[in-house]
Amino acid sequence: MVQGNVSRRLVAILAADVVGYSRLMGEDEEGTLATLRAYREVIDELIAGHDGRVFSGAGDSVMAEFPSPVQAVRCAIRIQEDLQRRNVNLPESHRMQFRIGINLGDVMVEDGNLFGDGVNVAARLQALAEPGGVYISDGVYQQVQKKVPLGYEPLGEHSFKNIAEPVILYRVFTSPDAIGGVADVWQKRLSARRRVVAAAVVSLVIVAGGVALWLLLWAPTLEPESEESSVFPGIARPTRHFKVERPAELADADALTIYDRIVKKLVAGYKKSGNPHAEVYRSWRRYNTTPYLSATHGNRYVNNYANAQASAYGMVEQAGTLPEGSVLAKDSFEVTDRGDVLSGPLGLMEKMEPGFNSEGRDWRYTMIMPDGTLFGTTNGENSERVEFCMDCHIAAGDDQDHLFFVPETYRTQFLNLEKVED
Questions:
Q1: Which of 110, 191, 221, 335 to pair with 253, CA 20 to 30 A apart?
Q2: Of 157, 174, 191, at which residue does a domain stop?
Q3: Which pLDDT value is given to residue 413?
Q4: What's the whole-model pTM score?
């Protein structure tokens, strides 16, 4: 309904703000401003990439609107993941973190600006969130709880000054520490009828290179004497290799050094599965320069390999449809908050003959645990466990052959990718 120059619409509002901005400016004005500009460029691109629009962004704050709460939460997750990775390369005192709040509400629109309680609540949620955290209102939660399977911690009702009604809040967990909340979601979903509409796919896969969201489930907090199993019976816990100091400060070169130290043990474990690709994937080309953190893989470090038939994978968005026989492999490892280096699973995508999996563009998804246990494979043993892998990749679209790619920062550049030989 329009009244004069003012209209109204229901939107999801994302509010983000820098933590400790005044302190950062007081310590290093030029460096802080340069970091803010770089981070704002990342944030603005992610907002636009998730169908959002920035309507206010003065100084250290950002306000954006989204037509869908799902897109707003996806964007928030991606923002926090990308900024966390960038902060690793900065001195601790210079790291810039954002708080994010998301609300769904009816707002007034005038000359491109948004006003009303819907906007104000988002800003209040942001102020409550911890550094690097995301808080959402109950309205957002009701829309995303079955579409974005993260951990959601209810925080009860909160009353805000000048807001008539109390607001029910939820903290969104974007790390594997949320295993309890995530497991609750997935244990229900695994027995439910699988979604076949892309709008209801597993929407956490917003990071290039995503393959297996279930990894968020399989992210135990390792205790030295614990024999606790994962949320799926019969699935072994990961191998602990060694411990590193200051895990939050690992640089890309450190991740590569860790990988080089443990890769033989990783491969030895995967080979126990008897899968032929687990035997040879390390002889294929790797399409990332160093292991990189992937939130969609339980905040594990991952590597992307492709066989000769899948050589066009390195052309990223121009790769088109990969031919039958193409195989992509993604191995992984985890560095916990305490510094424990743990083995991660091996994920495989294999392009099968036409008709094998028409809905999933004939990709076969296979997940192999670090001890060689088969977690599941499409149209085979425990197929239902990897159904969401396909659902995730549907989000990439048919034009991209359901593929996600290595983040640009970590992409290895090759020449004549279409002519790679085994």
A1: 221
A2: 174
A3: 62
A4: 0.48
Give the span between the Cα atoms of 52 and 238, in whole angstroms: 39
3-state secondary structure 292-321: EEEHHHCCEEEEEEECHHHHHHHHHHHCCC
Which run of H or E residues covers position 245?
A: none
Rounded Cα distance, 79 and 103, in Å: 17
Note the pLDDT tens digit of each residue in 330-343: 999 999 888 889 99
Gap between the Cα atoms of 33 and 94, Å rounded: 11
- Residue 63: is its pLDDT beyond 70? yes
Q: How many helices (H) and strands (E) does the chain have?
A: 9, 18
At residue 340, the 3 state secondary structure works out as: strand
Give me the residues paired with residue 365 across strands.
349
Angle of helix 29-49 relative to helix 69-87, nearest 10 degrees, comes to: 150
Q: Cα separation of 160 and 162, whole Å?
A: 6
pLDDT digits (tens, 9 = 90+) for 39-57: 999 999 999 999 999 998 7
Taking all residues of the chain, what is their mean pLDDT, rounded to a whole number?
A: 80
Give the structural domain span for 34. Answer: 2-174
In total, how many domains does the chain have? 2
Cα–Cα distance measured from residue 136 to residue 132, given in angstroms and rounded to the nearest whole number: 14
